[in-house]
Structures are given as structure tokens and as C-alpha cells.
Amino acid sequence: RRLGVTAVAGYLGIILAIAAAFVLALLGLRAIHQPDRVSRRHLELAVFGLVAGGALAFLALELGLLADDFSVAYIADHSATTTPFVYKLATGWAALEGSIVLWGLVLVVFTLTVYLRSRRAGEVDPLWAGALGIMGLVSLFFFGLMATVANPFQVCVEAASIGCLETSNLPWASAMAPLEGPGPNPLLQNHPLMAVHPPLLYVGYVGMTVPFAFAISALIGGLSGDAWLRTTRSWTLVAWSFLTAGIVIGGLWSYEVLGWGGYWAWDPVENASFMPWLIATAFIHSSVVQERRGMLQAWNFILVIATFSLTILGTFLTRSGIIASVHSFTQSPIGPALLWFLMLVLVGSLSLFATRIHLVASSPRLNSLASREGVFLLNNLLLTVFAIIVLVGTLYPMFAEAITGDQLGVGRPFFDRLAIPISFALLLAMGLGPITPYRQARGTVVWERIRTPLRVALGAGAISVLLGYRTGWLVLGLMAGTFVIAVIIRQLWATARTVASKQELPVWRAVGRVMRNDARYWGGQLSHIGVALLAIGIAISANQGSDAILTMEQGQTVEFAGYDLTFVTDFSRQEPNREVLGAQIEVTRDGTSSTILEPRLNRYLRSSQPVATPAVDTSLRGDLYLSLTSIGGGRVSLDVFYFPFVWLIWVGGILAAAAGLFSRFVRKPARRPATAAAEDLHE
Q: What is the pLDDT of residues 119-131, one digit of tens each?
């Protein structure tokens, strides 16, 4: 028995963060109405105390994992001496309590960035200080969870042969460390994307705290206008970009790991990340309207509150244990705590909004639905309806089971039936939005801007039909995605030609200058191109894919989707944390040997259930996807899929995420004459 240094250090970090968050909340909220009575020095001490506490807790957990400190129950129950390095790091957020520690770390980093930016104002600014106060309250809740129902530094006081039998919440308790732990969940140590996907999502989730904090600070202070909106633009774009990347990487992880050949199943936890993405996307678009025309002020407050609330809902769905999912954790007292926090956020925020609505409800009226504002309103309506559909489909089975006791399922057909038409309408709005003037759009102007892109889209549809792709949704998807891309390319080309002629530049150089001159606008258009590519990839791969179940003898060759698959041999090897059993499949096309694929079954040391790792051959034409289901006795059984152009999904999604960062970080060069014409084309 010994004193657990990891547990003591980590828990001290949590206590320090709680104390600092409490002080920050008091100072920040007081500064909203009495800024002269709050010292910037005191705010700074609170912020840096919060950062130090959050960093210490996370660092203690990670160092404990790397050192195999099994005196900490979390480490004893979720790691092992044989766990590879990258998965030991990922174990820090792979289970319930550790995921809250990472959440807290990301939250304190965002709080630090807000404070550092606030120093530019010199004196204590009520809006900024109030936002820090709200972030202090949110931090107080999450670090309070770590200190109580989600304590990652419980001490193991009675060891089992593997893992921990009994624990103590007291970090100074005398520890009895087991010699070995069971290691992470096999699914969470089967692909390195596990180390990437959750942190990306957490940055996206937690980043939405910043616009929420500024919005609540503005409401408490009775501040109308768009000061809070302009202030939070950078954080909103960064959070949205990371959330987008997290969702896309999560789809790729599912595709590469789970062996079912898909990337999106409308799983409740997938939906939990998709809903705040939808509402955050609506907020980004409507914020443009408020900044440009002073409209949608009240609506933007509602969207920000809804986005933050949906991130808490997503956290609840993942960590409450009320759903069965590869993403979810076990039943835990953290569920009720998160639910009460969600109720407090909703009731408190909406009540505050109701008392301040007279300050934010007045705004210019919409001149015409045939305008860019009108298209943005349509976009907002579609995104909101989409989010409500996903919300209802996700929560309905839970409410039905709670009321009737019957287990009901809302499956993929429900979501697809409603999501597909809305997605096409969103693509249409994306195509029309960038080229529709503000206030009032003349039909001749709009027609001039969409005439060529419309021809390109119709041509793409005709070519797909001639090539034999005649499924209705496929043709419509190709046409809609092509229309969006063609509109943006045509707009960029026309703008660049104008700038090139005035500044006597080559057009290709003018393109770069135009995009840098208005990085926010063109970053948005690049993001639209990414979404359009993703939509095209979904349309083609979902409608033109093929699948089969193959059983092959050693040396046998089977034809599938234009490929010849030959079972060469089986193999097995022992790795530090698992036993690998697989098959070598030679893949040829057009009589030419292309590659050897090795689909595998991985058996982890303390898990009886094997985990399939598919083998994927990716080319420009598509993916050949082999998932091993059984092997032995010179015979192999495979689930085989062919997905044409599925890579467009990953490329489009990452482009959309990167474009958000382009909007945030690309700086406008020195002002040059003749760029006004480029800006005029945006009107």
C-alpha cells in the first residue's frame, strides 16, 4: 500500500480549478454592471488559476497512464501495461471520467483565449468580463463533476488480479495497485483515429461555449446591437470547423474500424453531434445578415442558446448510459447531473431572453423574400427543421420507453425519408445565396449569374444518365452538387477577371488576391464546395455501391464488381496487446495485379469478442472494402463492398472544415485600388 501521487496531484488540480472558476464567475458577473469595481489583476489571477488547475488535472492523468500508475482506479480499469503508446494517451478521454477531464482542459484553454483577447480593451469591459463570468460558471459545473460523481482520481483500495475491486474518493487514501489492467475497450484501440476524433469533437463542442457566454453577458447587461456577435465570430468559426472535422473523422473511423461498410447510421450519438452542427451552421449564416442588415437579432440569441444546449444534450446522451451505442459509456450518476444542468441552461437562458426581448426584437424589416436575406432565412428555416427532425427521431424512442415501457426504434428509413429532400433544398439555397443581391434581387441579375451554372448542372445530369446512372436521387444529387460548385466557380472567375483587368494581373494571381481580400466570404464559398462534394460522394456511393458475402477456398478466385479476388493464404501474428488473424487477398483488375489486401480479426488479450479490421483499397474510381467474418480450415468468409467515389465524402468534409479556418485566419492584404469592383459583385 502506498500514497497515490497521481491521484493527489490530479485532485488538487481539480480543487484549484473549482476555486478559480468560482472567483472568476463572481468577478465576471459583477463586472457587467460595476466594471470599475473589478480589478483586471484579479480577473487575471482567476483565469490563470483555472488554467493551471485544468492543465494539472489533465497532465496528472496522462502521466499516470504512461507510467501505468494502477493506484488510480480509472487507470487500473481502462489501461494495461501492454497498451500501445498512442492508445495510452487516448485512454485519457476514452472512458467517462477521463472524457470530462479533457472537456475541462479544452474549456479552460478557450477561457484563456477570451481573457487574452479581452486585454486589448485596456480597462475591464463589461461584455468581455461578463462572458468570462459565464465561462467560469460552466467551468464550475464541469470541474464540480470531476470532484464528485465523475472523479477520475479515485484511489484503488482493493485490487483484483486485473483491475480494481474497490475505490475511495479520497485521493490521499492508502492505495493497493493491481499488477495489471484490462486495457481500453477493444474498439477504442483498433485504429489511431480514436486519438483524433474525440478531441476534434470536444474542441467543437466546448468552443460553442464562447458565443453562448457572450450572448448571455449581452443579455444580462441589456446590450443590443451586434457587438457580441462580431466579438465571437472567430471562436464560432474555429469551433464550427473542429466540429465539422470531428464529425467527418468520426465517419471515417466508423468506416475504417467497425467493418459494416458504412460511415453514418443515424446512431443517437452521431445525431447528438450533428444537431449542434446544424444549428451552429444556421447561426453563422444568420449572423451575416445581422451584421450586414441589422436583422435577426433575437433569432441569433435563440440559435446560440440552442447550439450550446444541444452540446450539453449530446454530452448527456453519450455519458448517461441511457442509450446503447458504440459511442456511449456505462450507466453513471453523471447522467442526472448533466440533465439538471441542461434544464438550468434552458430555463435560465430563455427566461433571461424573455426579460430582454424588448431590447433585441426591433430590427429592419425584410424588403423582399427575393433577396440574399430571404435566401438566408430559407437556409435557417431548413437547418432548424432538419435539426428538429433529428432531435425528435433521436429522443422519441427514449420518451416512449420511459412512458410505455416498450422499446421502439426510429431507424434509418425515417431519417433518410425526411433528410434527403431537406438536403436537396439546402443545396439549392447554397447555390442561390452567394449570387443573390441584398435587399431586392432583380430576376435578370440572378438569371445572368445562374444561367451558365444551370447549364453545367443539366449537362452533368445528362452525362450521368448516358453513363447508365439513372437512379433519381443520384441524378438529382449530381445536378444539385454540380450547380453549387459551378455557381461559386463562375462567381470567383468573374470577380477575378474584373480585378485582373483593372490591376493588369494574370487571372490566376487575381484569384488568390480576390480570395484574400474577402477571406470570410470566400471561405464560406469554399465550405459550400466542400459540402457539395460531400453530397455528390454520398449520392454516388449510396446509389451505385454493391455488396456481397463471399466464402472462398484457399487459391480460389471470385469476381466482384469488376475485380478478381484470390484468397492467397491466411496468417496470424502476435502483437503486444492483441493476436491478429487475417487473410491475404490478391486483388486484380483488368488482368493486372493491383494489390494485396489483408482484412483481419483482432483478439485482444482480455476480450473474448474479436474485432474486425477491414481492408480498403482506395482509388479514384472508388473503394473496394473487405471485412473478414470468419477464417479457418483453408476457408475464408468475407463481407465485400464496392463504393464508387466515396473518397469525395472525406475530401469534401475536410475541405468544409478547413474553409472555416481559412475564413478565420487568412488576413486581408494591404488595400489596393480597383478591388472595390470585386466587392460590388457581392452586393
A: 876 678 999 999 9
Burial class of residue 235 in the structure, from the number of CB atoms within 10 Å of its CB (0-12 exposed, 13-18 middle, 19+ buried)? buried
Helix, strand, or coil here: 572?
strand
Contact 334, 201 (CB under 8 A): no
pTM for the model stands at 0.93
- Contacts of residue 432, defined as CB under 8 A and 6 or more positions apart, other chains included, come to 375, 446, 450, 487
The residue written with cell numbers 445536378 in the block is: 479
By residue count, the chain amounts to 683
Give the other-Cβ count within 10 Å of 651's Cβ: 15
| Tens-digit pLDDT profile for residues 153-165 | 999 999 998 999 9
For 176, the 3-state DSSP assignment is coil
To which residue does cell 469478442 refer? 609
Low-confidence ranges of the chain (pLDDT < 70): 1-3, 121-122, 320-332, 362-363, 407, 593, 669-683
The Cβ of residue 411 has, within 10 Å, a number of other Cβ atoms equal to 11
- How many Cα atoms within 13 Å fall on the side-chain side of residue 59? 9
How many C-beta atoms surround the C-beta of residue 398 within 10 A? 16
Query: Whole-angstrom Cα distance, residue 142 to residue 132?
Result: 15
Q: Among 205, 66, 41, which residue's Cα sits nearest to residue 129? A: 41
CA dist 348 and 137 (Å) reads: 13
Q: Would you say 325 and 267 are in contact if contact means Cβ atoms under 8 Å apart?
A: yes
* 3 state SS for 638-675: EEEEEEECCHHHHHHHHHHHHHHHHHHHCCCCCCCCCC
Structural contact between residues 394 and 347, judged by C-beta atoms closer than 8 angstroms: no
Q: Which of 320, 334, 306, 328 is nearest to 390 (CA)?
A: 306
Largest CA distance in the chain: 82
Given CA atoms 395, 396, 397, 398 in this order, what sign does their dihedral have? positive
Q: For cell 488480479, what's the residue?
A: 161
Number of helices (H), then strands (E), belonging to the chain: the values are: 20, 14
For residue 665 the three cell numbers come to: 485566419
**Whether the Cβ atoms of residue 386 and residue 240 lie closer than 8 Å to each other:** no
Name the residue with cell 500500500. Answer: 1
Q: Which residues touch 571 (CB under 8 Å, ≥6 apart)?
A: 581, 582, 583, 584, 598
Please say whether the beta carbons of 71 and 93 come within 8 A. no
Whether 155 contacts 175, CB under 8 Å = yes
User: Rounded distance, CA 51 to CA 44, Å?
Assistant: 11
